[in-house]
Task: structure prediction
Amino acid sequence: MPAIGVLALQGAVQEHLDCLNALPDIEGIAVKKAAEINAVDGLILPGGESTTMGKLLREFDLSQRIIDRVQSGMPVWGTCAGMILLAKKIVGQDNCHLGLMDITVQRNAYGSQLDSFTTEAVIPEISPDAIPLVFIRAPYVENAAVNVTILATVDGKIVAVEEKNMLATAFHPELTNNLAFHSYFAAKVKASKNNSICSCLAR
Result:
């Protein structure tokens, strides 16, 4: 059974775990140590406060371990602050955190005007049905490289993207009863795990 870790340093950890454990043939695990990250087949970087989470990643010596696993093919999904952690560029900052995804993000893009709101959208790659989108002082993608697939926009702003084994959303699917995004990510993890097994057997 594939195991999907949820980075448990801060933020909406339990909500993601509840969603993962509601899926068939998936085990959701809270992770906060390098050895635990080594043991999972996919990783979710949850919402929270990106500056604090980035600091904790460095203090717990987790940044390079995550970078290495993602660059070797492990699927990763960042929600809200997790999107910021994945980005190669952050508007107004000279530094980034993990620097894995070829996007430029605007932090707290909605915070100064509206702290939170909910809308819905049909995202064909994820589900044929409308999906509720919960934004809480959310970022958005100001720029995405050509190798990044734009999955969703709201009011002209990019709010969901995918690049190879990486997925990022500015909103919080874990705060709804809709499991479409978690199911989609779980399918990516299962496919990645199966490919890894096949590669090992072929050697």
In short: The helical segments are 13-21, 34-39, 50-59, 63-71, 81-86, 180-202. Residues 180-202 form the longest helix (23 residues). Residues 65 and 200 are 22 Å apart (CA to CA).
